[in-house]
Design a protein that fits this description.
Length: 277
């Protein structure tokens, strides 16, 4: 009967050394990762994308959007502007505090919490903001604390969780220090290689007439329209779809509750109404 030869002692020792080296490298890499701050979620996760044309945008012909007064683009723009206004009025402080965090570096505290501490001016008043991040495995848990001198101290304006790789996450924002109820839920995704992503903003304030309304934004690789908004207004049960090209600004809109049909209605790169291509 044949027997498999035993590995030599030298080979056994080499294998043991190799295993120890690999284990040490893994532990060192893990330690290094723990000593690196997590990536802050992308800006679009908390502020509506501004690539959609607005009244301050100029069309390629040089005419201002406000002077074009087209039906298709104008209807789409008004609905986006309404959401921008609602969010800007109610979330100006926490959004400003969040955006300011990208200009600062965090420190690691003894409880393994990363903290970005800085001042931010909102409405002529200096606020103090602290963005906290706690890494737990593949997730990062976030909290934003804002202080306004003489008004409120360390108000936890929003909380959230994101994947450590920055591919997705969510936020919950509270109304304000006088009404600390949950006001807005945000769910977002991001694909870094393709520079695409989505963000859905949903009003969740109990007792509010808009509770359940949402706007859903996406940047895609689709052609010819590589961006979209879905807008749902719960007060009248209207669902609006908008698609446009981020470069040319040409796009289309659909809402059978507003238009006389369920078809798409188009505008060109000068934001003028056109027939279906």
């Amino acid at each position: 009967m044949k027997h498999n030869p035993r590995p030599s002692k030298t080979l056994t020792h080499l294998l043991m050394i190799l295993a120890l080296l690999l284990l040490s490298a893994c532990q060192q890499n893990e330690s290094t990762n723990q000593n690196e701050p997590p990536e802050i979620p992308p800006e679009f996760s908390m502020t509506i994308n501004e690539e959609f044309p607005s009244n301050s945008t100029s069309a390629q012909s040089g005419s201002s959007v406000s002077a074009l007064s087209t039906n298709n683009f104008g209807y789409a723009a008004v609905n986006v502007a309404v959401w921008n206004t609602v969010l800007a009025v109610n979330l100006v402080v926490p959004v400003a505090a969040f955006l300011e965090s990208f200009h600062h570096f965090p420190t690691l505290r003894s409880d393994n919490t990363w903290v970005w501490t800085y001042a931010v001016r909102v409405g002529g008043t200096i606020h103090t903001a602290e963005l906290h991040a706690q890494v737990d495995g593949d997730n990062v848990y976030w909290d934003m604390y804002v202080t306004k001198p003489g008004a409120y101290l360390d108000f936890n304006w929003f909380s959230g969780v994101s994947a450590r790789d920055g591919s997705n996450g969510s936020w919950t924002l509270r109304k304000d220090p006088d009404n600390p109820m949950e006001y807005l839920d945000i769910e977002w995704t991001r694909n870094k290689p393709s520079n695409t992503g989505t963000a859905r903003y949903t009003i969740v304030l109990d007792g509010d007439q808009h509770n359940g309304s949402y706007i859903y934004y996406g940047a895609t690789t689709d052609t010819p329209y590589d961006a979209f908004y879905d807008v749902y207004n719960i007060t009248n049960d209207h669902f609006l779809e908008i698609e446009w090209n981020r470069t040319s600004k040409a796009g289309r809109v659909r809402n059978p509750d507003y238009f006389p049909d369920a078809d798409w209605h188009y505008w060109d790169d000068n934001l003028q109404d056109i027939p279906a291509p």
